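Each field is set out as follows.
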Amino acid sequence: MIMKRAFFILLFAIAICCAPKDETYVDSFPEIYPDYISVTVPCNIAPLNFDVKSEGRPYVSLSYRAYSLNASVCGSTAMFPEKKWHKFLMMAAGDSIKVSVSAGNVRYKDFFIYVSETEIDPYLSYRKIAPGFEIHSKMGLYCRDLTSYREKVVFENTAITGSCINCHSFNAGDPSQVTLHVRGTKGGTLIRDGKHSGFFNSNNGHTRGGCTYEAWHPSGKYIAYSTNIPLQMYHVKLDNRIEIYDKDSDISIFDCATEELFTSPTIADSASFETYPSFSRDGKTLFFARALLRPMPDEYDSARYNLCCTSFEDGKIGNEIRTLVDAEADSLSICTPRPSADGRYVMFAVSSWGTFPIWHRDCQLGLYDMKNDSWRILDEVCSPETDSWHSWSNNGSGWFCFASRRDDGLHTRVYFSMINPDGSATKPFMLPQRRPDRYYTRLFYSYNIPELSSSEFTLDIDELTQDKKEMGQR
């Protein structure tokens, strides 16, 4: 009798625990951070953990057809197990996942996450650097596995006192072919072509400055560099905190076989600034930004760069310049042109003037369509804050990442979007983190120069401490 009574008491207790709560439905989406409502994601991305900004403990579940996945909750953060998340994404590839959220006694309107059948390059390399002006202090170069939360150190400047890793570039997303510039008294330009590695003195009297922005030729035989003399100044008004401008800039081509630089008046005209080179994926076109020479810094806000290109055949620079986008005619300035892997588009940054838009709040991303010879601002991607450095996925999927200050107006974070077949772009989503609210609110560093790659980026410190070679000139 006692056993029977205990059994019914247990059943009653279970029934009470499992009974549906008296929830109030609200016809609005939950407030979550990051905002993953109605985003499109690649089918190989890490779990989109998010914080629910509401009273009471949240309950979050995913559903796709007859399948469901409940999130574990830590504080206000909904967290999804990696293995189950990836299985869920693969099942829903090409379709959408329904996300149900309730908190306390409130049930919110369901939202959807759309899952693309196409993958994004699985690795992302970037600098994390304090958003300061005068000194680079502590900074590092890191590589993140986008299918998980694993991040590895590539290089931290505590390894070489006073150094600063500048822009890095891979050949079509292959980190075995990489070039990057190191600033400081022990600095130089590293070139690793897949077989050999060399450390070069790029500011040796032959060029107008050190090798700054770089781009590989897809053959791996050549690297285009802009040789710049960058200077900085400060604004007295708060809209833009700092201005970085080029006192001079040209473009030169490095021949990996001869270890020599060569150029031509087409890309090194004494009457103009040329910068930000980038090769098309077939290697036959060299894109770059170009502006008429102006006295600096007196006319820094009159320097406006157009998107230009010239031919490049068998190591020979073309003699004619074609202006693809006359931004100056619209009182705009273009920089950082990056062609897509399928060869159709060129993405670039657009601002009111200058060539260093990361400090311009009005900086947006633009897209030039090679097929239609037209361009537009990516309004569906851009924000009221700075949207700048971008990198295409190298598998031709249309995925790209970019750096944006939309989160707090000060720090740059990495966002992802995809260009659809009709040329439109999907709603951007922020780089996933295991505990996003804690991570981003406690991170006082900016993500800088995000670059997608097909494999993990590693760097041997010996490559940066070897004796420097002199870059020849021909």
